Amino acid sequence: MPVKQIIVDALVITWVEKATLSRVLALPIFAIIILQLFWQYYVDSISNLAGWINYLIYVFLLVILFINCHRIFLLGKDSVPRYGFNINARILRFYFWLLVLALIAFISWYISIAIILTIFNWIEAFNLVSYSEASKSSKVVAEWISVLAYIPAVVIISRLILVLPSIAIDRKDGLLWSWWVTKENSWRMFVIVGVIPWLISLFISTVFRENQTAFESVAFYIITYSAIIIEVSVISLSYKRFKEIRSET
């Protein structure tokens, strides 16, 4: 699978479809930004229940954003509602499988941490204790262990991620299909799902600063979600490419 070409195509298509993307995604992104500004300025004064409600609405809006992006990139501009909102069973299915992938990622990360800690204990290279009791050096080691544990989780999720664009366009390509078609492209999918978002986050972090004004926060969120749209387009085109490869065999 030509990762470089897919990235270039994703950038080109995102630019070509910028008018459609702006029209369809403006309201969902605006609602997400309002929620995030509310959370940013009132996080210390809201109840746990209100916080959870805010978070669930946030994920719901993200799901709408993801579905619309996938459908624009895979089916064209006529496949999405004019202003981005259309509540249907597709959203619930996407929401469900997004939660499934999140659970798989968490379990993978947790198991990886357990394995890494066991190895360290076996060789007695470090004295790893709880964060509250750890020395400065032990905290650094623990943070690196946490980062390393993400790698297996990202590898697994990168092999399963194609289930999401499939659901977005009402296909029935499940987790097993995604795992099977990506078996010879594990490292390429790792680049798409792991490395590219990491590079994007590094770029975004350069424009973030503490104690931002509301205007700066809005600009920051717009940059962030523009980058997310590009990442979704790369995943969409990866799905399309694998479907083409499958049809040719």
Lay out the secondary structure:
Blueprint: H1 3-16, H2 18-42, H3 48-75, H4 89-123, H5 136-160, H6 163-168, H7 175-181, H8 186-206, H9 214-248
Can you tell me about this structure?
- The protein has helices spanning 3-16, 18-42, 48-75, 89-123, 136-160, 163-168, 175-181, 186-206, 214-248.
- The protein is an all-alpha fold and 249 residues long.
- The protein has a domain at 3-17 and 92-248.
- The chain is globular.
- The protein starts with a helix and ends with a helix.
- Residues 128-136 have low confidence and may be disordered.
Comma- or semicolon-separated keywords:
about 250 residues; mainly alpha; about 80% helix
Overview in brief:
This protein is mainly α and 249 residues long.
- Estimate percent helicity: over 70%
β-strand percent reads under 5%
Report the biggest beta sheet as strand number plus sense, adding barrel if it closes: none
Radius of gyration: 20 Å
Mean pLDDT: 83
Distance between the termini: 14 Å
Give helix and strand order, one letter per element, not per position.
HHHHHHHHH
Q: Tally of extended strands?
A: 0
